[in-house]
Amino acid sequence: MDSQQHTAWSETPHGSVLSGPPHPDAAGPHAGGQGAAVQEALMPDFHETCERILEAINTVIDGKAEAARLALTVLLAQGHLLLEDVPGVGKTMLAKTLARTIDCSVHRIQFTPDLLPSDVTGVSIYNQDKHTFEFRAGPVFANIVIGDEINRASAKTQSALLECMEERQVTVDGRSYVLADPFMVVATQNPVEMEGTYPLPEAQRDRFMARISMGYPDARAEMDMLGTHQSVSPLSRIRPVAGVDEVRAMIAAVHGVYVAPAVKEYIVALGRATREHPFLRLGASPRALLQLLRAAKAAAALDGRNFVLPDDVASVADAVLAHRLMLDRKAVTAGENASSVLASVLARVPVHGGTHRLSSWPAGDG
């Protein structure tokens, strides 16, 4: 990095915005020196590998480049992804395609009402020959775990993933077993209005770094799909374009992305604003803010930068925060949803280098 480059701040109607790379000495002990050298060495390969993964995904999922990019962002940020939408829009296909682009272990779990927690995590079985109990690992022991229709399982089975997703380990009969590295859960779910579904509890939703609603593709994408998917699934042609060691190196590169103190203040201000909003009963948790930071770092890296801009935070805010927010009855009456309330928060919280102070919300403001 050029020693003459410094952090630049530009004035906008909402305050000052970080607009240039940080000075090598300003990043602290974790971003300068050896850490910065490792980051710069990885960045060229990082971008090329990301492009290969996204290109492979986009050959299968028509018209959903943004969803593919966000899925990769979550992987690089070491998070978990929740895909929510009506049946038939490609939720499972996106999860399977992401998994196939990486040469790693992949397991799929079909969640049903009769699925037991031990069917997910594993179980201890008595070995009569050795007169001891042996642990048989469940499908959660893989680099990428695809949980199909997670909200069709009971709350007890859903809770089996809590320890896995947060602590990346499984505890059975008092003994802990470490999960694979990297480890990512990609779960799909149907809207709670669909028959036979169980809403995910707040604690479970909070474990997912981001939620994507796929939506219907546009007319051109559907025309392309009818031409390419009618005889054979394009998923059968997907081959791994990155190895698990490459993914570990990319995750390490994301860890080295620099975040200025003012950007951290901006993230904290967003979180506090959600907790004070009159339309929300439950705002963003501290875990949510930490995951927002990680996702913003991955988004910056995908754009070829080793420093985070406030725009990176805003670009992933809806995907990371909206599914964690609980609306007040006033919001429902006013026709608001979590995304619209979050948009109002993003519009009101300023970005600057000083302390964030948010004035009180006007009565009835969404």
From TrEMBL:
Keywords for this protein? ATP-binding, Nucleotide-binding
The organism sits in which domain of life?
Bacteria
Q: Which residues form the ATPase AAA-3 domain?
A: 80-209
Boundaries of every ChlI/MoxR AAA lid domain copy: 272-341
Q: Which Gene3D superfamilies match?
A: Magnesium chelatase subunit I, C-Terminal domain, P-loop containing nucleotide triphosphate hydrolases
Region of interest called Disordered, as start-end residue ranges on this chain: 1-35
Tell me the GO molecular function terms: ATP binding; ATP hydrolysis activity
| Signal peptide range | none
Q: Where is the composition biased (Polar residues)?
A: 1-10
> What InterPro entries does the record point to?
ATPase_AAA-3, CbbQ/NirQ/NorQ/GpvN, ChlI/MoxR_AAA_lid, P-loop_NTPase
The family this protein is said to belong to: Belongs to the MoxR family.
Q: Which PANTHER family match?
A: METHANOL DEHYDROGENASE REGULATOR, MOXR FAMILY PROTEIN
Name assigned to this protein: MoxR family ATPase
Organism, by scientific name, is Arthrobacter mobilis
Give the source lineage, highest ranks first.
Answer: Bacteria, Bacillati, Actinomycetota, Actinomycetes, Micrococcales
